[in-house]
Design goal:
Elements (H helix, E strand, L loop, with lengths): L9 H24 L10 H21 L10 H15 L2 H18 L5 H18 L8 H13 L5 H22 L1 H6 L4 H18 L70 E8 L2 H14 E9 L2 E8 L2 H11 L1 E9 H5 L10 E9 L2 H9 L3 E4 L8 H11 L1 E7 L6 H13 L3 E4 L5 H9 L7 H13 L2 E7 L4 E3 L2 E3 L4 E5 L2 E6 L2 H13 L5 E7 L4 H14 L4 E8 L5 E5 L1
Parallel strand pairs: 5-6, 5-7, 7-8, 14-15
Antiparallel strand pairs: 1-3, 1-4, 2-3, 9-12, 9-16, 10-11, 12-13, 14-16
Helix pairs in contact: 1-2, 1-3, 1-9, 2-3, 2-4, 3-4, 4-5, 5-6, 5-7, 6-7, 6-9, 7-9, 10-11, 14-15, 16-17, 18-19
């Protein structure tokens, strides 16, 4: 049995993220089903799951950076990664608020993980989340977070006592949400976001104590949760297991929503209850300063509702419901640099759109690209793109969304990164359960994806097309240039911080002093084994003169080898190289 933590160190944070993801995975469908506020679009559980998935992936990346198992990352590194991962992967209103809760906790837990720090972390988290919401409403996840903080504030010096108190306080507050928010009371459900937070706090209890919270109609203090009108029980502890004879948490008496009426179509007649609201949800990440964000809040607040802006230190996550999606994005452009823009039409998303939906295409390609430049190139070629920005790999939910956006019966998925292999496989498996035929071509670099896309022929058989694309990708050797961040042992020798590294097929093969010389050496080594076509993808800050010089170098030293050059935009590597 693993040793239980006396405080929240990096390993405990990792465990918490993993258990929270499992808990939300078990409960996501039930949470989706009770989602009636602020928009009854039935996706709160999914949004929370995807947000925590991004947080967990960021923590795993921190652990993966430690090459040996002898040491673990510092606690500060783990909690900051958790917060950053949640911020960049936040989905929907609930996920955005959860990201701010985790960010508020991380600011305190980075300094210590004992009981006193956890109490303060819960308080900071609840306060930060409430400040992030333009117009806080009681009976929501904000109320549940505040109750968890208040319940834990007076509990002694033992970490286990504090986490139990926070969980119990959240559970009790969740049971009361139908009394505080009329739309919940009429629907006979508890707040979906609050229930998700209870699941996350339940995972924290399990992390610290080694046991999941009691799964039954009673809390740890023996008090039965408050029933909603009609006798149904709300506030089911994490795990979602109903007790015999007790209707499932969050549903009207009988245990399920009204037969034949999807949750997104229940008649909720008050505008303040979240029905007669704006048509679009707009979400984006934003690079901007504090002053610009303050002005952005004012402008977006005038455009719509459900405004939540979270983040700090130059990176923000913006969420708002508006009728004019273009104006919301334009406001972000004026404030700074928005990206990962996602616009959802509520009517279409929740099944209200009465227009005839277009027939799906027979086949599409979904490709992950490292920068805006290649995204444009692949889009022109007919592919649906997902941008993987530096330090921000896409989660499986983003890939599933891209597969859905492609709107095709058959999809070829090109992850273009070896580290995304498992993420892409999970996305493909999810899409298959939705009736889409998905083939995953295991491309390990963007240049392999370009080669595969170049031979894509939607008119031939699916299997034949996949084989041709796989063969083209496999015949493309790939390389990239990177800047060494610290002294390290490599296959090419010892590098120093600031050295230029030439990686061929994922391994360091060249250590150089500058980009041009290192690039020439890498090209010569790759072309020594033969090749007919060189592909160069230049980063945002790389001058055109370098591309011209490398093209000339190839032409002079390697006869009958062609060179194509693309601008990759804001990508991790200053130069990507492919040789076919």
């Amino acid at each position: 049995m693993p040793q239980l933590p006396d405080d929240l160190d990096a390993v405990a944070v990792r465990t918490w993220c993993s258990l929270a993801l499992e808990a939300l995975g078990r409960e996501r469908a039930e949470i989706d089903a009770i989602n009636v506020y602020p928009i009854a679009d039935g996706d709160t559980g999914t949004n929370l799951y995807l947000t925590v998935e991004s947080a967990a992936a960021a923590v795993e990346a921190v652990f993966a950076a430690y090459e040996t198992g002898a040491t673990a990352p510092a606690t500060a590194d783990a909690v900051r990664a958790m917060a950053h991962g949640a911020l960049i992967g936040a989905r929907g209103n609930s996920g955005t608020i959860l990201a701010q809760l985790l960010r508020g906790m991380a600011g305190v837990l980075a300094d210590g993980g004992d009981a006193a720090h956890l109490r303060l972390a819960l308080t900071r988290a609840a306060d930060a989340a409430r400040r992030a919401v333009a117009h806080p409403v009681e009976g929501t996840v904000l109320t549940v977070a505040a109750a968890a903080s208040e319940a834990a504030s007076g509990e002694g010096s033992d970490l286990r006592t504090v986490v139990h108190a926070a969980y119990d306080g959240a559970l009790a507050a969740l049971a009361k949400t139908p009394e505080q928010l009329a739309v919940l009371g009429r629907a006979g459900v508890v707040d979906a976001g609050g229930r998700g937070l209870v699941a996350v706090l339940g995972a924290l209890v399990e992390t610290v104590t080694g046991q999941a919270p009691v799964r039954g109609p009673r809390t740890a203090h023996g008090k039965a949760p408050t029933p909603v009108d009609g006798g149904s029980v709300v506030g089911l502890p994490v795990g979602g297991t109903p007790v015999e004879g007790v209707p499932e948490a969050g549903f009207p008496a009988g245990g399920v929503p009204e037969a034949g009426v999807p949750v997104g179509e229940r008649p909720l007649d008050c505008p303040e209850d979240g029905v007669a609201g704006p048509a679009f949800e707009v979400i984006y990440l934003l690079e901007a300063g504090d002053e610009q964000v303050a002005r952005l809040r004012t402008r977006l607040d005038a455009l719509g509702d459900s405004l939540v802006v979270v983040g700090g230190d130059g990176l923000w996550h913006v969420h708002v419901h508006v009728d004019d999606a273009g104006a919301a994005v334009e406001a972000g452009v004026e404030a700074g640099r928005p990206y990962r823009i996602r616009i959802t039409h509520f009517a279409t998303e929740s099944g209200h759109d009465l227009r005839v939906q277009a027939e799906p295409a027979q086949r599409a390609v979904v490709v992950v690209v490292p920068g805006d430049g290649l995204a444009g190139l692949c889009t022109e070629a007919g592919a649906t793109t997902v941008i993987a920005r530096p330090g921000e790999p896409p989660a499986s939910g983003e890939l599933v969304d891209a597969i859905r956006r492609a709107h095709a019966r058959e999809v070829v998925l090109l992850p273009n990164d070896a580290a995304l292999r498992h993420t892409a496989a999970a996305a493909a498996e999810q899409a298959r359960t939705e009736g889409v035929r998905v083939a995953l071509v295991p491309t390990r670099a963007a240049v392999q994806g370009i080669a595969a896309l170049a031979v894509h022929e939607p008119d031939r058989g699916f299997d034949e097309d996949v084989v041709a694309m796989t063969a083209a990708a496999g015949a493309t050797r790939y390389a990239e240039l990177a800047v060494a961040e610290r002294q390290s042992w490599t296959m090419a020798g010892i590098c120093q911080a600031g050295d230029i590294l030439g990686l061929i097929d994922g391994d360091v093969a060249v250590i150089g002093a500058d980009v041009p010389a290192t690039a020439r050496t890498v090209l010569d080594r790759m072309l020594a084994a033969g090749g007919e076509l060189v592909t160069l993808v230049l980063g945002e800050d790389v001058p055109d003169s370098l591309a011209d010089a490398l093209e000339e170098h190839v032409r002079e030293g390697h006869l009958a080898v062609d060179t194509v050059i693309y601008r990759g935009g804001h990508q991790r590597a200053p130069l990507l190289i492919g040789v076919e």
